[in-house]
Amino acid sequence: MKIDQKLISQLAKLSKLEFTKEELPKIEEDLTKMLAFVEKLNEVDTNNVEPLIYMTAGSQKPREDVAETRITQKEALKNGPQKDSDYFRVPKFLNKKD
Q: How buried is 83 (Cβ within 10 angstroms: 0-12 exposed, 13-18 middle, 19+ buried)?
């Protein structure tokens, strides 16, 4: 893949980034180096390599999913900006359509 200013402009637009004309040569150089690195990885023979499922040697045992109360309703409501008896008050953001 050829890195040119047109491609950099497209990537900048998609990622909502803005570059000055002075930055473009450096970005082009950096992207070219990144692609060269990825191409180098494609040269590695991975035919007899098992897919990696876990990053550690052993598998991780999930903890039990147990419901427990760590904070009371009163403590939780204390942290909200607005409350209405037992609930948080939030601005209306859904409109019902008939």
A: middle
Decide: 1 and 35 in contact? Cβ < 8 Å: yes
Domain-wise residue ranges, the chain: 5-42
Segment (H or E) for 88: strand 87-88
Q: Which residue has the higher pLDDT, 86 or 31?
A: 31
pLDDT digits (tens, 9 = 90+) for 28-53: 999 999 999 999 988 989 898 888 77
DSSP percent split of the chain into helix, strand, coil, nearest 5: 35, 5, 60
- Contact between residue 82 and residue 89 where contact means Cβ atoms under 8 Å apart: yes
